Amino acid sequence: MICTLYFLALLSSTTAFGRMGMWSKPRNETGGGNEDRCTCDAFLPSSTFPIKDLEVVEQMAGVISQKLEVEMGKIEEYETKITSYAEKIVKLTAEIVKMEKNPDDYNDADIEDVKVELIQVEALIKELQLSIKSSTAVFQSLQVQATQMVETLNKLEKTYDKSLVLATRREYIKVQTQLEECERRHQELFFPNIGSCAHTGVSRVGKPIVSHLNAHLSTSHNFGGWGKDSKPIPERESMYWFSSYTSPYIGDIYFYSNYKNLLLRTHFQHHSLHNSYKGNGNNYILHENTLYYQLSSPFGLGKLNFTTMSYQSRVIPGASSRFSYSNSPSQIFDFSSDETGLWVTYATEESSGRMIIAKIDELSFGIVEEWMTSIYKPGVSNAFMVCGVLYVIRTVDTHTEEIFYTFDTNTKEESYISIPFERFQDKYSNLHYNPTDQKLYMYNDGYYVTYHLWFNHTASVTVETPLLLNTSVE
Fold it and tell me: How far, rounded to the nearest angstrom, does the alpha carbon of residue 66 sit from its chain's CA centroid?
């Protein structure tokens, strides 16, 4: 018998990682004699593994890491300078108040001295502003480099064995975590208003930060949600949660101790809601380690506390199941959490589909107060609450969403605005605001996406949110 042996080999050398696969395929063939022959045909790949590309990515990771350490040092210097400047401003303010009350006690020389000090403080503030802009530019530059790393790694993983680039992928995760921490420190230092409502509303939405494909690594899981607890319990301040499914249904929820473990898909806790607590729709949130979500039967609100595993449900008389958001089915009850507490929006037959805002009492799980808006719910794509104000979103085109309407429950006033922002993929099933970091969390066709929100008192500082691309982590 004559057989032909085919084998495919990648040369294992300094320019190619290798593994060998071989198989035999028998076939009848007329030979020149009676002896058995084995003909070996070798097929070598057209290209070898690009180790140089991987080395470039590794070097880039090292450079970015070093630069981030420098920036973290600068932020510490900024903290010291801001404290010093604040003390000087307080002293100068007190001195000027004294002068205004007792002008006769001061001569021209005293006034001139205060003017000089004011000029010095102004110069220091301008110097600090330039430093902030410099750091912002560095963040943007580093993010561009990080994006290039992702693109290279994704390309290598699609073409070659993923295990070969795993170590470099982990190095990227380390860099991304450092960048996140540096950005967080920068945010806390220069925008220390988190938790405060001392502003007149949202002024801008940052660029989409795309962290990762969902933990199932499946684009078919395009319904779901993710984010952070809007009122975290002690020792879970850094926790992230995630849930997804192939339809608008909530069956499982996963918890991750921090952002890095979210990216690595290493959860520390998992709860199944398939049997006793199952729900549908995707506008659910986590608040004080409690899941607030939509029930399918009976149609209403569900509340599941993961600390005590206690469960509550609530039916809202008049709430209709006919009025969903335009971009996703079964989005009837939309839960929100902001600086003032818990909310849910929905529509009724009596309201003719117009959105109703309801404030939730956390203890009784009842409705405290309701407000009716003039917005027809099926005509919008989503909504969220900030400081007691409803922000409603509509789709502009295939890549753009727009915050176009607000309703202030404090004043009962509504207004039309225009704040466009970029959408990563075509559709999204969950969008909510988190008051602990002033970000929007979006589950966008299977991807984790976040947006920084900027308010009227931060709009003067031109800090642009960096863009992160998808990273698949094995």
Answer: 25
| Separation of alpha carbons 9 and 25, rounded Å | 17
pLDDT in the model for residue 454: 86
* DSSP β-ladder status, 269-272 and 252-256: antiparallel
Residue 219 is predicted with a pLDDT of 84
Query: Are 254 and 241 in contact, with CB atoms under 8 Å apart?
Result: yes
| First-to-last C-alpha distance (Å) of the chain | 45
Among the listed residues 75, 132, 112, 21, the one whose alpha carbon sits nearest the alpha carbon of residue 458: 132
Is 0.70 topped by the overall pTM? no
Per-residue pLDDT at 163: 54
Mapped onto helix, strand or coil, the DSSP state of residue 325 is coil
Residue 468: what pLDDT?
A: 35
Q: Taking residues 72-96, what's their average pLDDT?
A: 71
Residue 229: CB atoms within 10 A of its CB come to 23
Task: Walk across the sheet containing 310-314 and list its strands.
Answer: 249-250, 279-286, 290-295, 300-305, 310-314
Q: Are 354 and 372 in contact (CB under 8 A)?
A: yes
**The dihedral sign for the CA sequence 211, 214, 218, 219:** negative
Average confidence score pLDDT of the chain: 77
Question: Of the candidates 293, 215, 224, 242, which has an alpha carbon nearest to the alpha carbon of residue 444?
Answer: 224
The predicted structure's pLDDT at residue 195: 82
- H-helix or E-strand containing 65? helix 51-101
| Poorest-pLDDT segment among 56-60, 120-124, 292-296, 468-472 | 468-472
Higher pLDDT, 154 or 112: 112
Q: Check residues 140 and 301 and name the one with the higher pLDDT.
A: 301
Domain 202-455 is found in CATH 1.10.10:
no
Greatest Cα pair distance in the chain: 125
d(CA 184, CA 178): 10
**Per-residue confidence at 79, pLDDT binned at 50, 70, 90?**
low
Tens digit of pLDDT for each residue in 52-64? Answer: 665 666 666 666 6
> Which DSSP letter does residue 232 get?
P
**Residues 293/302, Cβ–Cβ less than 8 Å:** yes
In the chain, count H helices and then E strands.
4, 25
The backbone torsions φ and ψ at residue 392, rounded to the nearest 5 degrees and listed phi first, read: -110, 140
List where CATH 2.120.10 sits in the chain: 202-455
Phi, psi torsion values for 317, nearest 5 degrees:
-60, 130
How far is CA 78 from each of CA 85, 154, 190, 193, 389, rounded to the nearest angstrom? 10, 37, 9, 17, 33
